[in-house]
Design a protein that fits this description.
By secondary structure, this protein is of the alpha+beta class. The chain has seven helices and eight strands; from the N terminus they run αααααββββββαββα. Helices cover 52% and strands 20% of the residues.
Length: 262
């Protein structure tokens, strides 16, 4: 009898190990299938890459829970009876999983509401960040300035600013400055800006508003948000050169007229 018991115990452990291996293989197959069939097909690549993170994280929980239940049953543990009979245990498990469930629900809401997708540029905690990874539970943001990565539970994200691809570069001039010279400098900037890498569209908007000290002129351009930093730097350099050539000095914060008496 002891030999039979030892054999069954040994078989149960062997099957448990086999189930663990099968679980990891199954998760790898699911991930590979999603990447091949879903992630990089169709027009909206970012949307599909976000979708794969949600689906895989949910599938991961389902497969792991199913594997644990099967292993426990192999060892003679009636999981369903325990959960049904021990209300306290069920309550404890429910409380333990409360935050996880909140994160999953928030992740589904973020996906359905299209808050952001993998590859989008957003402003998080005052920093411009690239969305590097998204799952049902967490989102990973990477700052484009420092390179720091932030891993945030989805339930903690209640609002976020998605940075658009369309930008406006502005400069303010005193009212008495020659508008023709200003517009000429902005026209030349827009023309040269077409050669800047990653800038897709660009045009001189001319006079767009009035500021505290003068007239505000602007240039509208379109550039992928995660490429905007260097493209904008190049455009600012060109605008500076053209404005200097025009001989029209713009207004800067803190500009004051200083008179020196001899």
């Amino acid at each position: 009898m002891k030999e039979v018991t030892d054999y069954l115990t040994s078989a149960a452990f062997t099957l448990s190990a086999l189930i663990v291996v099968i679980t990891f293989l199954l998760l790898a197959v699911i991930k590979k299938f999603l990447i091949k069939k879903v992630a990089y097909t169709g027009k909206d690549e970012q949307h599909r890459n976000t979708f794969i993170g949600v689906i895989f994280s949910v599938a991961q929980y389902v497969v792991i829970v199913a594997a644990v239940v099967i292993i426990l049953r192999l060892h003679g543990v009636n999981v369903f009876s325990i959960v049904t009979g021990l209300g306290i245990m069920a309550t404890i498990i429910g409380l333990a999983l409360q935050d996880t469930l909140k994160d999953i629900i928030a992740g589904i809401n973020i996906y359905n509401s299209n808050f952001y997708k993998v590859g989008d540029m957003v402003r998080y905690n005052g920093e411009e960040c690239d969305v590097k990874y998204f799952s049902a539970r967490v989102t990973k943001f990477q700052s484009i300035f420092t390179g720091s990565t932030y891993t945030v539970c989805n339930s903690s994200i209640t609002s976020i600013e998605k940075i658009k691809d369309i930008k406006v570069l502005t400069l303010e001039f005193n009212f008495d400055k020659d508008s023709k010279k200003i517009n000429k400098a902005f026209d030349k900037t827009a023309e040269r800006g077409k050669d800047i890498e990653n800038i897709k569209e660009i045009q001189n908007l001319g006079l767009i508003s009035f500021g505290r000290q003068g007239a505000i002129y602007g240039i509208l351009y379109k550039c992928p948000a995660h490429k905007d930093l260097f493209a904008r730097m190049e455009l600012i350099k060109i605008l500076h050169e053209e404005v200097m050539k025009s001989g029209v000095k713009p207004v800067f914060e803190g500009d004051v007229d200083v008179s020196i008496e001899k």
